[in-house]
Amino acid sequence: MQELNEESLLLIHKYFRNELSAREAEKFEEELADENFRAEVKLQAIVFQEVLDSRRDDLTQLMHEAKAELEHKSTSLHQEHNKTKSKSWVVLTLVVMTLAAVGIFIMSPKSEKQDYSRLYAQYYKPYDTPESQRGNNEIKETPLTRALFLYEDQNYKEALSTLEGIEQNDDIQMYKTQCLMNLDLHQKAEAILLELLESKNKRIRENAQWYLTLSYLQRSDAGSCKKLLTQITTNPSHLYYNLSKRLTDDL
Fold first, then answer.
1. What is the reported pTM?
2. pLDDT value, residue 116
3. pLDDT 10s per residue in the chain (251 long)?
4. Is the Cα dihedral 173, 177, 178, 182 positive or negative?
5. CA-CA distance, 204 to 193, in Å (whole number)?
6. Rounded to the nearest 10 degrees, what angle do helices 81-106 and 35-75 cross at?
7. Scanning 71, 93, 126, 199, which has its CA 20 to 30 A from the CA of 159?
């Protein structure tokens, strides 16, 4: 992964602090077309979640310490009633204020969005290509093989352009959805995936269902995501049954 310039890193920093102006938000969306930029955003989303987990641990420790302090003070209440009562209320007030501050931070929409992004990065794996024949001199290069080579190289923009010029079938459409998802064009991908839910091919239908679930997850559409997970987990023979059970538990 190539190192980003200072301007791009600042955009990502502002995004996670919810400080992007309207113009910067547009610039951020444009930058998402770059693979290195997307990789950095996903990496920082994971780091962001680790920070939240650490703060939760710190808060739990603070509550335990406050409780111990209150219990200790109560044993000497008969000796220093007024003094102890005052100190106890100070400790309790600090705990309440900390809970409020951290709670607002953890439960903010931006935090929830980053949690979904972390899960998406954890569960998303690109749709498999046929076993690569690259390097086989007997294989004639066609627009399809070229598109698949570009896809394997994660050159999704060029792969999508090449796939657009090929006679369409369900597999081609599926590859297109993967290119779109990796370019963060999720709503365009979802439009195709919804059509593929009607495919006569069971493998295509079940892949479409899974990737549609993940696309909803990335867009923080928890309701649509959970609805599809419920459908998948009622079918133990589904290709993504086990993964869907795990994702359901993680949500």
1. 0.56
2. 82
3. 577 888 888 888 888 777 777 777 778 878 888 888 888 888 877 776 666 666 666 666 766 776 676 666 656 655 555 555 555 555 555 555 555 555 544 445 555 555 788 888 889 988 887 655 455 555 667 888 899 999 988 899 999 999 999 988 999 999 999 999 999 898 899 999 999 999 999 999 999 999 999 999 998 888 899 999 999 999 999 999 999 999 999 88
4. positive
5. 9
6. 160
7. 199
Structure confidence at residue 122 (pLDDT): 87
SS (H, E, C) the chain: CCCCCHHHHHHHHHHHCCCCCHHHHHHHHHHCCCHHHHHHHHHHHHHHHHHHHHHHHHHHHHHHHHHHHHHHHHHCCCCCHHHHHHHHHHHHHHHHHHHHHHHHHHCCHHHHHHHHHHHHHHHCCCCCCCCCCCCCCCCCCCHHHHHHHHHHCCCHHHHHHHHHCCCCCHHHHHHHHHHHHHCCCHHHHHHHHHHHCCCCCHHHHHHHHHHHHHHHHHCCCHHHHHHHHHHHCCCCCCCCHHHHHHHHHHC
**Matching residue, tokens 């993967």:** 178
Residue 43 Rama label (left phi>0; alpha psi -120 to 50; beta): alpha
Cα separation, 81 vs 94, whole angstroms = 20
The CATH classification of domain 133-250, taken from the options 1.20.1250.20, 3.40.50.1010, 1.25.40.10, 1.10.10.10 = 1.25.40.10
